[in-house]
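Note to self: user wants both folds in one dump. Writing first protein now.
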Amino acid sequence: MRHFLSLSLCAFVLAACGQAPNGASEGVATDSDPLIGGHVASDSEYPAVVYLGGCTGVKVGPRQFLSAAHCFSTQTSMVMSSDNNAQNQVTLSITSIVQHPQYQNCTACAGDGSMNDFGLRPDVALITVLEQTPSVPVAVIDPNPVAVGSPVTLSGYGCENGVNQPSGPARLKVGDTHTVDPLR
């Protein structure tokens, strides 16, 4: 049985995006090349997963989205697209951003916004918007812990060609993997 990972784990996994095992370099040379360990999702595969102006979000309430804390701090609006066409964006007014307290108070972070800042701290935020988004369903969240070694499916936008590499238009990507012990 597959579990849908919470964004806090996804944020941890995405922080390592672009780094291949043993220092090897992997990348996607052109838009026509296959994704490494995944595929482009169809519009119907994960309808609660949305593009939030460069980051991935999941609709978790009528006006609430869960996303990575490093993507949101003081913004008053955000763009959202709920399909694989980055041109189909709507602007939403942000009414509140609640970052995980351990993200806000990281004492071991470089403080320069680099990937080193993300490490194991809970890089997660709850964003509330003014507008309703009825075309996007609310995700069903499984509150049970996911055991190390369990099969999971990751979904998200970005990191297609690796960190700091040019990318084409944002596309929702999906890949199957298993959970690992974050302390190893």
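First done. Writing the second protein, which came from a different request thread.
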Amino acid sequence: MVAVWNATDHDGQVVPNGFYHLVFTQAMTDGSFTVLNRGVYVNPYSQRALVQLTAYPNLLYSAGTVQVTASVEGSPADGKGLVKIHAMNGELVKALDLSNGQGAWDLTNRKGETVASGLYFISLDVMDPTTGAEAHKTVKVVVLR
């Protein structure tokens, strides 16, 4: 099965960059049906600003801390909630505060609970200081327990 979505809403407007939960339903000739659920990241807007985002290490075994560095047009990205960590299903795990373009993730979620093994997406959403357009960068981190 192949499904195509042009990243527009029911009014034909392009959706903003972000995580979306898609549900596909296929009806069979015998009256049964199959449902497929997927969380996806959609980035329909092109990036104009030079956005840098790094996460180190990007492969962790059992414990540790991920150091995050973020900049826009060569200047440190600062502020609350600029960097968000999502699970593979699109669920927001945690938002990081940045100071002088630096932050750290201690492998816990918003409730302070240790996250499970899996693939996590660390993303930076900012405004281009020159044009005011949205700019985005995502990196991946794998946690193995």
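Dump finished. Worth passing along: DSSP finds no helices and eleven strands in the chain.
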